[in-house]
Amino acid sequence: MFAIIDIETCGGKFDYPKGRITEICILIHDGLQVTDKFSTLINPECYISPLYTNITGITNQMVANAPKFHEVANTILQLTENRTFVAHNVSFDYNFIKGEFASLGYDYEREKLCTVKLSRKLIPGKKTYSLGPLCESLGISNNARHRAEGDAVATAKLFDILMQIKSNSK
């Protein structure tokens, strides 16, 4: 079982109390298809600068009444427990989530799988392995780029293609 995850943030790296998660989407994947979804804005309890609003479209007003990370932490724990944490450039998403849990005094550890690394291995020779251009080159549409759910769904479709390629190469 896999937890395909994408987050949006208000910083380039986790930096408590600034540079925190503003949105998360977790897709539960059974190896064949997505079977469950959790998606929410998160109040980062800090200011979202115009730079990050321009990237994601997420404003301070949008997250003002959203749950804080500690209010969704248990859900994230339950959804990712005993599942491989899958993300495009997994270290970014994983380290933010790990940092959020560390700020709560919890040591978050999950097995990880990076779709960037897997794409490089299974689909060599691409000009770029950035999510948008890679998905476009594979016919995967994403009408909600730089939003957690849009990017998580695109990553799940990419993951399906990668699993098919891996299965066919055996």
Oligomer: single chain
- Number of discrete domains: 1
- Taken from the alpha-carbon principal axes, the silhouette is globular
CATH-level-4 superfamily name: Ribonuclease H-like superfamily/Ribonuclease H
Please tally the β strands and state the result: 5
Structural class comes to alpha/beta
Q: Taking strands numbered 1, 2, ... along the chain, how are they ordered across the largest sheet?
A: 3-2-1-4-5
Instruction: Report the sheet-strand fraction.
Output: 15-25%
Mean pLDDT reading: 94
- Please give the share of residues in helix: 40-55%
CATH architecture: 2-Layer Sandwich
Ends distance: 20 Å
CATH top level? Alpha Beta
CATH T-level topology: Nucleotidyltransferase, domain 5
Poorly predicted sequence stretches spanning 5 or more consecutive residues: none
List the helices and strands in order: EEEHHHEHEHHH
Biggest sheet descriptor: 5 strands, mixed
Radius of gyration equals 16 Å
Number of helices: 7
Structural overview:
This protein is 43% helix and 19% strand. The chain has 170 residues and is an alpha/beta fold. The chain has a single domain (2-168), classed as Nucleotidyltransferase, domain 5. It has a 5-stranded mixed β-sheet with strand order 3-2-1-4-5. Helix 5 (115-122) packs parallel to helix 7 (148-168). The radius of gyration is 16 Å and the shape is globular. The protein starts with a strand and ends with a helix. The model has no long low-confidence stretch (mean pLDDT 94).
